[in-house]
Amino acid sequence: MKVLANDGISKSGILALEKGGFEVITTKVAQEQVANFVNENNVDVVLVRSATKVRKDIIDACPGLKIIGRGGVGMDNIDVDYAKSKGIHVINTPASSSESVAELVFGHLFSGVRFLHDSNRNMPLEGDSNFDGLKKAYANGTELRGKTLGIVGIGRIGQATAKMALGLGMKVIAADSFIPQVDVKVEFFDGQSITTTIVSQSLESLFKEADFITLHVPAQDGYIIGEKELAIMKDGVGIVNCARGGVIDEVSLVKALDSGKVAFAGLDVFESEPKPEMAILMHTKISLTPHIGAATGEAQDRIGTELASQIISLLS
């Protein structure tokens, strides 16, 4: 059987699939050519990340397709229900990238509270001529310890983020429509651990109470954070989105950054991805990454081997 890993797969995933008797194709096929390639090469399994879309047109055009796999959590680039209605298995790897995404959230938080994103732009330009000026510009940093982190969506990634926040000495609050409460276990290097219970509260109360807000939700029909929500937040709030583009109204966010209502934002995903708006890209108060939440070697190894395990289990 043949597997097309159109957005790539880790070496460990390839080896696991080959050991299971599968041929793995890692050729990058253009979106409009995916259906033809699948049919011409008798591909049984298509694996994607976030780049390739598997919509109704591809599903209808590829009657031999047995599995569609998503390396990661969100499956908004796959017509999941339609695929299942055609007897196609749809799989993903919801737990594999949690720690990597959570660490990136804190990369953005640390960058925001200590101005690292802006300092790293300006030090190469002015570090030798305006050292004291830059030192003064970046002198009003903020500690995360003792502050309140509001987590919107307390699923696997939200919980991984909560563990890191608790380890830093932050207060953690959460809002989640589907998880009323969750026990979060923080494990230490020596085998010891502590467990705390986080009870979901309303979005409105979270927005009013949090010093920093991080989003961990799937793609939405509308904004979770828009002008109205920004207005009720604390002055000087920091906002991070490593989830999905389109859950924050970027126009309202820029206005709030310009007014000082929002101190900084950290964005890994964007409304107009893969071509983010220039107002976002050039803003001095936004820490930016190009949708790399799960892009660590460790996460990709876990994703590859987990996908391989599921495929082998379903088709062997």
TrEMBL record:
Signal sequence extent: none
GO MF annotations in UniProt: NAD binding; oxidoreductase activity, acting on the CH-OH group of donors, NAD or NADP as acceptor
Family statement: Belongs to the D-isomer specific 2-hydroxyacid dehydrogenase family.
Organism of origin: Flavobacterium saccharophilum
Domain D-isomer specific 2-hydroxyacid dehydrogenase NAD-binding: 107-293
Designated name of the protein: D-3-phosphoglycerate dehydrogenase
Start and end residues of each D-isomer specific 2-hydroxyacid dehydrogenase catalytic domain: 8-314
Record bears the keyword Oxidoreductase: yes
CDD domains, sorted: PGDH_2
PANTHER family from the UniProt entry: D-ISOMER SPECIFIC 2-HYDROXYACID DEHYDROGENASE FAMILY PROTEIN (AFU_ORTHOLOGUE AFUA_6G10090)
Entry-linked Gene3D superfamilies: NAD(P)-binding Rossmann-like Domain
